[in-house]
Amino acid sequence: MTKYDFHNVPKLAWALIIMFVVGSVVIVGGLLLLGGVELFNFLRVPLIQAFGLGMAITAASFFLLRLIWSLKAAPMGISIVFFIIGVSLFVSVSVGRLYALQYPVYVESFGPGFGPGLPIKNVITFFRHIDQFTKVDDIARDPNEVPPPITVLESEPDMNSALSELMASGTLSQVEPEATPEEGGEVRELYLETTEVLAEIAPGITFNYWTFNKTVPGPFFRIREGDIIKVTIKNSDSSLHNHNVDFHAATGPGGGGAVSIVAPGETKVFTFKAMNPGLFVYHCAVPNMAVHMAHGMYGLILVEPREGLPAVDKEFYVMQGEIYTTGTIGRRGLQAFDAKKMMQSNPTYIIFNGRTDGTVGKMKAEVGDRIRMYVGNGGVAHNSSFHVVGEVFDTVYPEASMGGALFKNVQTTNVPAGGATIVEFTVDYTGTYVLVDHALMRTDKGAWGTIEVTGQADPTIYDGDFSKPKNTKY
Ligand SMILES: [Cu+2]
C-alpha cells in the first residue's frame, strides 16, 4: 500500500475531512481576527452557505479521486483532467477570466471615472472597522419633512392657455426667462454631511448605505428663484470614500460637484445662484457616480418660482431609488453591493425613501385636503411610472418643470432617473391610497407607499361592498 493509495477509503475520507475542518477553522479564525464577533454575525448567512459548499466539495472530491483511481489507466484519469480544464476555458474565455470571479475585485467598465467595483482595500477596511460604523435605526427620510413655503402664490395662473396664446401669436421665441438674477435675493445656507452607515433595507437585511445627513433620500431643501445658495458639505471622519454634491439646480461645471469633493474629515463651502425655478435632484457625483447613488446619495431641492406655488394643505416628499445586493431579494444579513447587477440594470430592491416600507403609514390627510407630492427618482437604472391607486392627479408639473404648460388629469406620470415630478390632487374619499411605480413587479421589490385619508365617506363619489370575498382565492 503506497502513501497515495486511494483504495484505502477510510484514509482518503479522513484526509479530506481534516482538510475541510482545517479550512473551516482558518476561515472562521481569519474573520474573527479581521472584524471580530460583529463581522462574524453579519456574515452568518454566507458562512452557512460556504460551509454547505465546503461539505459538497469535500464529498465530490472523495467521489472524483476514487473514480480516477478506480479507472486504473492513466489516459482515463488524464481525460477527466482535460474535461475540467476545457469547461473552465469555455466559461472564462468570453471576458478573459471567470465571470463569476469578477466581483468584487474587478468589473470591466468604460465610464468617465473609476469602474463600479469597490476598491479591495476599502472592502477590507470596511470589514476591519465594521463595529465602528454608525448604525441608523431607520434610514427612511420622513415624507412629511418638507419645509414651509417661502412664498405662496395667491391664484394659480392658467399656464396652458397662456402658452397656447404665445404659440398662436408667434412670439414664443421672444419670451425668455429673466436673464439677470433677482437683486437682493436671499443668501440661504444648506448643510450636508456625507456619512457611510449601516441600516436595514428590510427587517434583518442590512446594507452599508452612503447618505446625505444619515437618511435616504437626503434632506428636502426649499429655496427661491434668485437666491444665492451657500452650501457647506462635510465628509464624516468615519467615511471610507470621497464624496461631493451635484445640484441639478446649479449652473456650472458639475453643478457644484467640481468644487465640493471632500475627503473623509474634510469640509468645503461653495455658492451657486438659483437661476431656474423647479424641483431638482441633488446627488453625489464622485466616480463611480452610479455606485455612490446606488448606495443612497440623492435628494431633492425645490427652487420656488419668485411668485411662489399655490397653497395646498399637505406636502409630501417621496424619492425612488434602487439597491443592488449580491444576495437575492429577501436574503437576510449584511448585503454586499453588487456592481454586476448594477451594470445589468437589475436592482434587487426598488424603494421609496431608502428602504422597504419607507413611506408606508407615514403620510396622512383629511378628506378635502389638497395634496402636493414632490417625487424624485435617484435611479440609477430605471425611470419611474409614478401612480397613486384610486386617485387622478389634477395637476402635474411634468418632469417638475415650472413656468411652462401644466398637465391636467393625469393617471401615471414619468419620473426619469435623475429627475423629478410634482403632482397635486385633492383627496375626496376616505381610505388608504397606495402609491406605486406602475411597472408593477417593482412593488414586489419595495416600490410602494401609502397615504391614509380620514374623514366622511361620500357615497356619491364611490360606493359598494368593501367586505372581502368569503373564500379568498389567489
Ligand atoms: Cu459619494
Strand content: 25-35%
- Taking all Cα atoms into account, the compactness measure Rg is 28 Å
CATH topology of the largest domain: the name is Immunoglobulin-like
Q: N-to-C terminal Cα separation, in Å? A: 65 Å
Describe the SSE topology.
Blueprint: H1 9-42, H2 44-71, H3 74-92, H4 120-128, E1 134-135, E2 152-153, H5 159-169, E3 187-202, E4 205-212, E5 221-224, E6 228-235, E7 246-247, E8 267-273, E9 278-283, H6 289-293, E10 298-304, E11 309-310, E12 314-323, E13 333-335, H7 339-343, E14 349-352, E15 363-366, E16 370-377, E17 384-388, E18 393-397, E19 407-410, E20 412-415, E21 419-426, E22 431-437, H8 441-444, E23 448-454
Parallel strand pairs: 1-3, 2-11, 3-6, 4-13, 5-10, 12-16, 15-23
Antiparallel strand pairs: 3-4, 6-8, 7-9, 9-10, 12-14, 16-21, 17-20, 17-22, 18-19, 18-21, 22-23
Helix pairs in contact: 1-2
Bound molecules: copper (II) ion.
Copper (II) ion is lined by residues 210, 243, 284, 286, 292, 297.
Explain the overall architecture.
24% of the residues lie in helices and 28% in strands. It is α/β, with parallel strands linked by helices. The chain folds into 2 domains: 9-101, no CATH class; 187-454, Sandwich (Immunoglobulin-like), CATH 2.60.40. The strands form 5 sheets. Strands 1, 3, 4, 6, 8 and 13 form a 6-stranded mixed β-sheet that branches. A hairpin with a 2-residue loop joins strand 3 and strand 4. The longest helix has 34 residues, at 9-42. The radius of gyration is 28 Å and the shape is globular. The protein starts with 8 loop residues before the first helix and ends in a 20-residue tail after the last strand. It binds copper (II) ion. Residues 210, 243, 284, 286, 292, 297 line the site of copper (II) ion (CU).
